[in-house]
What does this fold into?
Amino acid sequence: MVEYSVVGKPLPRVDGLAKLTGQAKYTTDLTLPNMVYGKLLRSPLPHAKIVSIDTSQAEKLPGVEAVITGKDTFGIRYAFVDTPNFPGEERPLAEDKVRFVGEGVAAVAAADPDIAEDALDLIEVEYDPLPAVFDPEEAMKDGAPQVHGEIARTTSCAWEDWGVARKGHSYTPVNNVAGRVLLSYGDIEKGFSEAEYIREDRFWSPATAHMAMEPHTIVASYDPFSGKLDVWLNHMAYEIKRYWLSKTLGIPNEKIRVHQTYVGGAFGGKAVIFDYEVVAGFLSRKIGRPVKIELTREEVFSSCRNSIRFDTTVKTGVKKDGTIVAQHVKVIVDAGAYKGSSSVAMYLSHAFSDACFDRRNVRHEGIAVYTNKNFGFAKRGHGAPQNRFAVDSQVDMICEDLGLDPVEFILKNLRKKGDVLPNGDKLLSYGLPKCVELVAGAIGWKEKRGKQRDRNRGVGIGVNGMFSGSGYWPFACAAIVRLNHNGTVTLMEGDVEFGQGPDTTYSQIAAEELGLPLEDVILVAGDSELCPLNYSNFLSGGMFVGGGAVYNAAHDLRVKILKVASEILKAKPDDLEMRNRSVFVKSKPEKPVTFGEILRYNIQKHLGDPLIGLGYKKAVPEIEFYPSLSRGTGRFTDAYGLAAATAEVEVDKETGRVKVLKICIADDCGYEINPAGIHGQMVSQAVMGMGDALLEEVIDEGGRVLNPNLVDYEIPRAFDIPEIVILNGSDPDPNGPFGGKEAGECARAAVIPAIANAIYDAVGVRIHRVPITPEKVLNALRSKEKEGKK
Amino acid sequence: MEIAKKPLKVTVNGRPFELWIKPKTTLLQLLRNDLGLTGAKQSCMDNSCGACTVIVDQMAVKACSILALQVNGKDVTTVEGLASRDGKLHPLQQAFLEHHAFQCGFCTPGKLMSSKAMLDENPHPTEEDVRRDMEGNLCRCTGYNQYIEAIMEVAQKKEGPKW
It folds into this structure.
């Protein structure tokens, strides 16, 4: 085992001083000279025709600079999924009708936020209400209200722009179907015919909020003389925001600059382009002044994305010894008013999980349905939490029926290192078996499972897998490492710091490769004009792809420095060692040549060459554009992150209240570049998973969100946190930087079924719908009691 | 309708200010918009998250939920006033740094100020005291443990991080 001096250490975060002293600047903290404030008027109705909008009174209000409606932004379309068959249907402001409560109808820019708010009150919108539909199964029936008419193709779609040689076309959804996926391998009928035991169960996961602490905010500043748009915004990868701002506003990509800011949390919820971002750019260009739009909490809950509502039916066939021989998963997604990422989530709910169990014969089909509700997007695991809750709950039920132990069942069915998945992905690293054993041991599985019902206590387990970046085009990153005169280096890479830690871990990678201490790496990150291509920060590609590019750039510089040093020291590069801003011959450490001297020598002798390292990495090299979502063919990712979780709970039978006593997570992130950072990611996911299991649901009635604030939408607080044990189940990946791969998303999905299964172990009730509230537990306990009496 | 501005005298991070403000200005708006101190954050706007916590005299206060005029004549400390002017971190800041007690950092200023007020009042709390006291500070990134450990280290001067 190589001994490293910078990676593998729990070094303090490089963003620490800024964040701990109040100096870190987030978009909400920005004020530009001459800036005005924008606000959106949002629909109070779930489904209605817009008869007329009168903005004349608002325009007359002193301090109001501009008022716009869907007439101004007519025809602008965008979407996360913008393909030839399914062109983008989202729009910055409603045109002919509104489709959900919270959809933008008009927008104002005014001298201060109060005036902007007053101006919204002066806009008169006449609506003609339409019948609305809120349930996906109702929406699929003949005669249901249609959320969309023809979805007209107004421009080229994203795939065409990115080089896919297929023309887009308009289409009209039938029975509100927003998208379908079908992935299968093996022979599902044959698989079930060979099964000795089959069961089918249905589970539901609601929309939950990302609830990042910084509310969604943008500052957009258009300069009419240069035609350039500068933006500071909440994002997770600037390329995707820049592409969509360019496309929707008709401003060339290179004329848009996304500036570095810190982002106050994301969890998937800030990756896509939003209505208010297009509106801010539009308003700024219209009036030639900077525009800031900061959403209220209610807007974030009801108009930005929440997680995707899944209704999952799982049918599994097993042999008596627990070997899985077939699994058929049917998903209905309640997409909401626009399709969002529903198709992608349905596909990912299969693709992430396929790294867990070898199920032999699989059919995974999904249908996403338009309804008159807010729509969804990725949230930390994108489809995996919903799928693992269903599948791992059913594993627990099968084991109960067949008298098997869930841990043994899981270990029996896990894939193996070196396996090639049906789509071609190869498991070059696979720490999941070790993770399962670690969490089983840490919770005291053997001593506790099924043995604590007298105390209403139980234990449960769940597992999950996750990509380290995907074949989504152009999922690739580049990085530049520049040698400075004093021997420090400047690292330029595009990833944005939203809490997950790339500023620190990427600096560690560069420092390690160049034999420097961490503080010798000067970082320029997250700025689209200064940094090279960056597309890694979602689908958990940060470390594997972004960090990989940084490693490659630092390595490139290392090779270049050694080459020059070998000229100066008259020695072979292999005989040289690099440490403390200098290079020396291994046998003569007392005679080093410094990086500064090397740089000066190289500039003098080699035409001014300043020694710059370049590196790049593509998530899945073999994939040109996309894997096929509809067929599940083509490579998905180059490395899977994996995790297992166990939980111990105590249930109060009088109140139905579940108290989580302990959560154990073992994670395979390949290599812990910064163990303290990894620990934080895991504790975070333990707590978020606990919130998912017990507390969190965006509740709607008649299309209106009933709990759009941090009082009524409960998340775990400091006092609710159980004992949490984090274990390292890493298996270094040969293609990851120092072996590193995904860490930030995988574990959350394993925690949810671990808690649900622990509740069953404690009191013998199975809850099929998260969150598992006291009311649901109590009702289940009462039904169980009644059945017992019969 | 324009409402007459009112005078306000307040000391913030040791500096005295005298200014005229709209009566409806909240303390958070005063700090962020009038004084340019953006360390205290605006997040929930309904007194539930604690990201805007500052110290008024000895007490932790959610700055979004009181009016600026209510701090007339008082002494306000924000996160910008926590480290010494020569760049030396407060022990809490130092412990937060060593324990990775923050991720996105948005709620961190509020947590620092809440925990400072708590430790000023009770220098040796139990972990349960700390967790109860920090109930008002929401965090979505950290899952709380690393910053609770950081506070406990300051409270007990105990050993450094575990890893």
Observations:
- The radius of gyration of chain B is 16 Å.
- The mean pLDDT of chain B is 94.
